[in-house]
Records
---
Amino acid sequence: MGASSFSFVAHRPSAPLAEYVELLWHAEGRIGHTRDLILPTGQAVLVLNLGEPIRTAGARGDSALQRRAWVCGIQAGPMSNEPRAGTHALGVVFRPHRAHAVLGVPLHELTDRVVALDDVWGAAAEQLRQRVGEQRSIRARLRVAEAWLLRRLAAPPVRGLDLALRQLCGVPPRSVRQLCAEVGVSHKHFIDRCRRFVGLPPQQVIRVQRLVRTLAAIDPQTPPRWAELAAAQGYCDQPHLVREFRRLAGLTPSDYLARRLAVFGPELRAGQDPSFVPVVEG
């Protein structure tokens, strides 16, 4: 594999795992830049490292050299991913508020952190990593990981939370107190459920999901009309969009777009890995 080549394979799991996991991915090769900033996605991610160590840092800035397997909790700020050499890893992207059923821990314990999977699953984490690493083909690795995750399902989805979160994150967002009154739960109970099953309190969920929609809506090949984008995604105005963008992404919208175009070039399209911001150093 060439020094600048990078292979990424995405796999959609079948039912019933698909209700909990959006996709599994397999990545191998070298990125063409120093590291990635990964902006908030509203989703937890599990990573099995099959190659050289990777330095990570969650939104809290807790930098660590990851050698085996780890979990990226829900992030309310940018995290960092820096391969020390080539990347070889398999990842699991959980659906919003579904990771707890597989991981077996309250999601707020992982918020803004990158945690060694050993600390969550114990010896089972390394057993999974080794089992996946023994497979000779990408398809076999994905198949083994999918079967393993299916066996770990420990709880059904929290059905009442689905509708509440869709309404909460609409445009414009619903009032949390009004939503609680409609579904018949106390404000405190709803906050507790969001923290446990999503990883963030309701107002933070609204902010993160609004950023996720905004990132997906930015067209890199068209001069942005930030005021129109702000209105479409539920911000009060353009300054509100810029403030929220900087708070959650650590960049202005213009900086975000410029960095991505500088590395990915004219082939970059709207919705193409919008949470990844390449960082070139040295």
Note: Residues 212 and 257 are 14 Å apart (CA to CA).
---
Amino acid sequence: MRFSNELGLPAAWTMGFRRDGREMLVVVVKATYTLPLPGMEPVLADEQVPLVEADRYTGEPGLSAPLHETDFAHGKPACDVLLVGSAYAPRGRATQVEVGLQVGTFAKQFRVLGHRRWHSRAVAAVAGAPEPFDVLPIGYDVAFGGTDRREQAQGRTDAFEANPIGRGYARDTQGADGQLLPNTEALDERVERPDGRYAPQAYGPVGRNWLPRRRLAGTYDQAWMENTAPLWPQDFDEHYFQAAPPDQQIAWPQGGEPVVLRHLTRDGHRGFALPRRRMPILFIPHRGRDLLQEARLDTIVFEPDAERFTLAWRVALPLARSVFDVRETVVGERTQAWHRSRGTPGKTYYKSLADAVAARRGRTGSAR
């Protein structure tokens, strides 16, 4: 299959499959925009971030927070809204600050506090006072969670499965003494117990094996191995492909939705609208009619520390037999002249008048 990219944006294809085993041709396109200053609009960045081919982490995979998830998910029933960045204290110094992210009708806020530690008492653990800070990362590795490893030598650990790489969690008061508390917490729920069940507060991707996401992957038991493998189990849920937590999944945006970032940039506030951009994908089969589809915007990643954000569009074409059913996939639109030439046997299409003139003069032109 020929893959033609008319837009110049990072784009690629991969193979996916549905629960019934039918293969799909999945096309992903990504665009990087500058994070606009107040009163300005987003524009395409000079440097386009390439597609992410494998999951990335802040440190060792499995022992640190997911940073960017691969762009090659088979499909996403909703749009992930993600942010990888830091909290910025107003006026350059504070012990705590409230951060906020809004996209359209979606909004999420939480509190960010300076470093603090648990101090064990006779019957409880007490949180120390937060230290002043200027800038603090706000990923899941500083959100509530963690793994109690005091009995690791005996082959036992106790992980907070909603965020096993976080901080602040312990089975009991004595295990918490001297340990760091999380730097983030919900506005309406203070972290007051090391053995509590607090919702981790962050904007980044959640781990594939964390709860509740891993439940969406389905059941891989002996019955699956004997009757269904290598297809998805019957209880597989496509929401498993969503990298964002459930409260950061929104309906596919159409463009124009308002965006607000509060205390997530050095100047404290950014407000703008998502770009309005169509993403047509043309599938040209060996036999039959061409199929033009609109890819859906299903992943938004804000990176305020780098003054940019990325948008990723995806479309999946179910295949009759295999990818060889498709002769060419085109990212972007072709001209009406090209489409007319498709119906005229023996007619050659040139991308420009200059190419046509060059061909008439015997030089190599760019024809299709």
Note: The two ends are 15 Å apart (CA to CA).
---
Amino acid sequence: MSLGDSLVSPQPPDAAAGFRVIGAGLGRTGTTSLDAAMMTLGMTPYHMRDVMGTAGHLDRWIGYMDACKSNNAAAVLAATDAVINALLRDCFTATSDYPACLIYERLMERFPDALVLLGVRTSGKAWAESMMQTIGLAPESMAGYPFASCPSCAR
């Protein structure tokens, strides 16, 4: 096998095929590198930047957070599926980063053949320091939907 050969054959985005990779890790755990690797393998990954950059996605995430706050399991499931259906409609074939990591369990249920990757840091302290040196520098961006803490969604 040469360096140019891929261990995973690239496939074109296909909503019918579903997700090939589910990134279950929070931001600041290598999600940008994971995205680059998935793109190299022919996937279309969904990252935090796609929430704002893809029409209708922010509204879907707001609906998800509202459902979480309602404490209504049926509403949470419906809102989660609405997010997933929007991802499929827009031809995403993999996820990484926040907020998609919040729905990794439902993604696993719907796409049991997908590879699940959990990115981690060396410690919680290292993760928190990285967050504060990057995303934490713009706290106003984290204060509202869909990024504010949702106590009803916590397990």
Note: The CA atoms of residues 64 and 78 lie 8 Å apart.
---
Amino acid sequence: MKGMIEQKNGGSVKDIDLKNRRVSGYLSGFGNVDHDNDIFVKGSYSKTIVERKGNIFFLQQHDWSKPLGKFDVLTEDEKGLYFEGEVVNTSFGLDQLKLYEAGIVEQHSVGFQTIQSDFDTKGVRNIKEVKLYEGSAVTLGANSDTPFTGFKSGIKEANNQITKIMSVLKSGNLTDETFMQLELALKQLQTKAYKTGKHSNQDIEPSPGTRNKDYEPLINTFNNFKL
């Protein structure tokens, strides 16, 4: 992958100041092996932060046509790559703040080029130095490679996310493009839920009286979804 631009989720929201349009949190975490069997090592961002200061952008969905601003603070700590930044006062910037406020956007992601890395005996790639181009706010469904891990146990959490998205959609107070992105996120979640439920039922065949019972709340949520 060396020389190619990569994107990885792994950062969380820490604080949101809607009045001043400021957001803080993490773009990336250290010490966790992701679904690509990669791990960011502390220090991997230190050189690029110095060398590219002022040229690392805050984007929406990795979309260079929608810059949310630049980072006032960008630094490594024990947890990961910490940031603070002000969201621009544009239509998609205001949409982004609404998605933060509704709890729909809870993750961040980085766009980078790997400079130095190696593999351990288990085949895990240790990323030791990167060239960082941008950090993005990402909504549910933005990364189609992110799998569900045990959907049955997380069905309540999934329903909460769906309810949040539906609430924002019904408000109608969004740009058309953001509106369509959230509709797509719902469809992606519905597809993943169906596939995960089908796979689970194949592994352990439930009795006729309990088949799909665990999934009824989610199914009902989708069936009752109307704009």
Note: The radius of gyration is 19 Å.
